[in-house]
Amino acid sequence: MTPLILGMAGPELGAAERDFFTGVDPAGFILFKRNVVDRAQMKRLTDDLRTISGRADVPILIDQEGGRVARMQPPEWPKFPPGAVFDQLYDIAPMSAIKALEANAQALALMLRAVGVNVDCLPLLDVRKPGAHDIIGDRALGTEPMRVAALGRATLEGLRAGGAVGVVKHVPGHGRALADSHIELPVVDASAEELETDIRPFAQLDWAPMAMTAHVVYTAWDAEQCASLSAKVIGEIVRGRICFDGLLMSDDLGMHALKGSFADRAAGVIAAGCDVALHCSGDMAEMEACAGAVSEIGAMARARLDRAMATIGAPEGDFDALIATRDAFLAALQ
């Protein structure tokens, strides 16, 4: 198995992709809107990926947050609210917000599991800061670390109850970045003392099964490399200060915050301490370059992967009842 999570080009696997995935044996896969048509198609695709991997529990990821980040969209699937809605409810009734978000996440997981997806790249634990770039924006769960942690916990627990693994992101925090890392490299000049606010939700949820790094430079910790490529940030902050010991994946290697060849990017994030590298575009040449730059997944990384996937149980709950529960709590905002 190689330490890669890879995307694919379309709604079904081509012959070249099938051969490539069979030979490379990536640790997991990730789906995007281009891979999504309807329920039957998604189930065929995810079944196909499981057959190729030979693992019933192979991670199949998706970014299904709600709001503006949703790969599965109406009319085939219902809309889900963004994180900011639950933050607003927390202002009125904290326990209602927590219960609403847990029901929301459990319903999300049930929807994903019905089409064979078992990992949702959620929750965001980025503490939103005034004046920051809107790439996080209403996706955030708030501006106060303990609130973000409480709502993040509800999300993880709801996903687990619905039979899916959650991924906390973007460790050690994207909430004060002034740029969109999809487009350019954000540089955060906050002091180490100020950054304690950013890492607090991640430290509170250090037991999360999976986490995704931020392509952000934090000059107080490492002025040369973004977190995804920094052995210092991953070793001293993510694994040390935060005490996270779950599976750590990079954010997408295709984002423009990173420079250099795809081989260098893939090798770099693994060398820095990420357990797996995430490549999303489905571009075959890029995936081949990534695969050629990494070796077999390490024993510790494989153990973390297995431990994360072992948290999945049978999906529980009734989708319609969970949506009704969520909406009953959110009615307080109207």
UniProtKB/TrEMBL annotation:
Cited InterPro entries: GH, Glyco_hydro_3_AS, Glyco_hydro_3_N, Glyco_hydro_3_N_sf, NagZ_Beta-hexosaminidase
Gene3D superfamilies per record: Glycoside hydrolase, family 3, N-terminal domain
Entry annotated with the keyword Hydrolase: yes
EC number: 3.2.1.52
Stretches assigned to the Glycoside hydrolase family 3 N-terminal domain: 27-310
Coiled-coil region list: none
SUPFAM superfamilies: (Trans)glycosidases
Source organism: Sphingomonas vulcanisoli
Catalytic activity: Hydrolysis of terminal non-reducing N-acetyl-D-hexosamine residues in N-acetyl-beta-D-hexosaminides
NCBIfam families in the cross-refs: PRK05337.1
Family: Belongs to the glycosyl hydrolase 3 family.
Lineage: Bacteria, Pseudomonadati, Pseudomonadota, Alphaproteobacteria, Sphingomonadales
GO MF terms, alphabetically ordered: beta-N-acetylhexosaminidase activity
One of the Pfam families matching this protein, by short name: Glyco_hydro_3
UniProtKB keywords: Glycosidase, Hydrolase
Protein name (Swiss-Prot/TrEMBL): beta-N-acetylhexosaminidase
